[in-house]
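Input/output pair, single chain:
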Amino acid sequence: MYDLIVVGGGPAGLAAAHSAWQKGLKNILIVERDKELGGILNQCIHNGFGLHRFKEELTGPEYAGRFIEMLKDTHVQVMLDTMVLDINKNREVHVISTENGYQVLQAKSIVLAMGCRERTRGAIAIPGDRPAGVFTAGSAQRYLNMEGYMVGKRVIILGSGDIGLIMARRMTLEGAKVLACVEVMPYSGGLIRNIVQCLEDWDIPLYLSHTITDIKAENGRVSHVTVSKVDDMRNPIPGSEMEFDCDTVLLSVGLIPENELTRSAGIQMDNRTNGAIVYENMETSVPGIFACGNVVHVHDLVDYVSAESERAGAAAAQFVLGETEAETPIRLSNGFGVSYTVPQQIRVNRIDKIADVFFRVRQVYKKSVIEVSDGEKIIASYKRDHMAPGEMEHILLTRAQLDKVAGDTITVSAKEAE
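Output:
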């Protein structure tokens, strides 16, 4: 019987396990399907990590290494090269590995930290041939940074998510010619700093409101890509086609929380985030099972993943060592201009002074206002100079503000400043 089993040994799992250990749990196990800890950070060799958490700029492996070193001062156990097959409401974790075979592990609490996966070509139905040379940006990143394979020489990138932007620069540094980055939306899906550092600094054009409408092959490999402008309904505009002579297409068209295990455990899901519905301490609808990081909602900064996961680990420890009395929660809903909120529910008596709320907006805003209301009155408002869908927003709600809520629902909205 383990006090805590953490599923996933990436940044979320590492932070949750370390936090739970600090809060008093001693029998902790991390289960990781890869052959080493660190998760996706191991292939992210660019810098820009850790500015919030460690107040310095680190590469992905360096950031992961900090938490791995912190765990060395604990007795947290690790199972590598081990796949979790199933989790149930009784907090039984079914795992399999070549070393230990099939096992059923019992836990007093579980933290789900499986991360996310990329959308593929099949998910977005790009027309044309089905040749070699079409990769997700993350797969290409692993091939290049960890396996040592150059995936192509003349590249088109579809989608302007952060991984795609970073790979535009990475491929250029390795000698490839990145012909264009193509984005179907009228705004980029990545951080502004990545647009500047990875595209503008390298004279790589970004075509907004464009998409790939055809892929042609020669000898089984990508040879030509047709890019078309799209209208407000994202339909290709006839006569706007551009043809690129290339051998590689990288897809950066969105990330999906990896939640098969979450669903199999009978946990309530949020169709806005494709992740679990969580309380203020990252507990799911199944008592004793917590979720954190990209498996809950896709983050843009790993520093936020770590902070959220430390909260989940601390809450798991509190659950095992002694529960707090239950309370009817306040439900958070997304109002105008907001696509989702995390957490989706807040139990006021479970927070000390403040509750963190994360969300994304639906459009690009310049000077704007975030409003939190309970249907009768505005309980909090926050000014912003700029907001965009590609950058996660974060606000703090105080215990005093939440104590004044009338009813059981609050709404988070965004609007242009007057």
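The chain has a mean pLDDT of 95. The chain has three domains: 1-118+255-323, 120-253, 327-418.
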